[in-house]
Amino acid sequence: MILDTFIAKVDPENPTLNKDIIAKAADIIKNGGLVAFPTETVYGLGGNALDGEAAKKIYAAKGRPSDNPLIVHISHIDELYPLVEEVSPKAKALMDAFWPGPLTLIFKKKPIIPSETSGGLDTVAIRFPENKVAKEFISACGVPIAAPSANTSGKPSPTRASHVAYDMTGRIDMIIDGGSCEFGLESTIVDTTCEPPCLLRPGAVTLGMMKELIGDMTVDKAVVSALKEGEKPKAPGMKYTHYSPKAHITIVKGSLDMVEKYIIEQADKGKAEGCNVGIIATVQTKDSYSGHNVLIIGDRDHPETIAANLFKMLRKCDYLGFERVYVEYFDEDELGMAIMNRLKKAAGYDIVVL
Ligand code: AMP
Ligand code: MG
């Protein structure tokens, strides 16, 4: 069935000014429907986390495999305890430091979480977002909200309402437009059911920030490298192709001088072959590529700008019809780990090392 998707703007700084819109969205959730909403990471596609049928609708709207569990969002710390069996002291320390915020924690689940929401696992992923609109919306619903990113499965995550509308119009009941997402990359995911806790997906809460607080942590292999045939990531979602625009993306690694020279050569060659080539550059390098299709992703001295723009740039590659795209490499420390994790997946691990 094609739904009549309703899009409504809410003031990101003061969502209580739009109480009627929030109430309408909450009614949809209470009636088993789906609402996309902004968070500080990316837009989420929300449904009642305690209703297996709503979870099934989320999988259908995204075209997402149902073994890929959903993150459950809460609007107050007290809402956590009815959902999970145990909160370890290290989990508690992470919650105290980073909640509300861009950190998802995995716990052993209580039976109240239906297996559709947890993708058949006996654990559940929980996040307490900081975004004001998200908090207002979840709180008005009165139930925890299961919400994966609000994109079609495999596509870059949406960081503004127009991205959600492009992917989800006709497939969901409502989109709350609360402007651009602050961080632009999905939440950090940490499994707290093991000792030491394990990083399953890097994000704006970095490994360094967490280790400083709780000491040793392990890092799931899927975070930094491509998995081999038969290897399984601990976050089921990490095995799927992700963030892929239609263009073939190549990451180019080396000294910036050599990277620029290589990209110019390849872009000239592609152009001569009649190919629509795009270059994803930074404010530091953009002028080197004059005469080519350059997208500026951000400032190398401020990695948070690169994170915030990454998915928007990958979507632009599609909107502009690029067939081949060259991206400069970024250092993989701190926030760079999350940036490169998404970029490598978008590129299918095609990296030229000079
Ligand atoms: P998304 O909501 O699109 O950001 O995707 C949610 C991510 O969380 C996916 O990679 C899931 O595989 C992962 N995830 C959700 N629940 C669990 C869980 N119980 N254990 C491990 N990973 C999970
Ligand atoms: Mg996603």
What's the short story on this structure?
By secondary structure, this protein is of the alpha/beta class.
Helix count equals 9
Query: Main sheet, how many strands, which sense, barrel?
Result: 11 strands, mixed
Poorly predicted residue ranges: none
> Helical percent range?
25-40%
Average of pLDDT: 95
The helix-and-strand class reads alpha/beta
Topology, number of strands:
16
Give helix and strand order, one letter per element, not per position.
Answer: EHEEHEHEEHEHEEEHEEHEEHEHE
Identify the overall geometry: globular
Write out the strand line-up for the largest beta sheet, numbering strands in chain order: 1-8-2-3-7-4-6-5-9-10-11
Beta-strand percent range: 15-25%
Radius of gyration: 20 Å
Structure write-up:
The structure is a single chain. By secondary structure, the chain is an alpha/beta fold. 30% of the residues lie in helices and 18% in strands. The chain is built from 9 helices and 16 strands. Strands 1-8-2-3-7-4-6-5-9-10-11 form an 11-stranded mixed sheet, with helices on both faces. Helix 6 links the parallel strand 10 and strand 11 (218-219). Helix 1 packs across helix 4 (132-141) and helix 8 packs parallel to helix 9 (335-346). The radius of gyration is 20 Å and the shape is globular. The model has no long low-confidence stretch (mean pLDDT 95). Adenosine monophosphate is lined by residues 68-69, 71, 106, 118, 121, 123-125, 148-149, 186, 189, 200, 234-238.
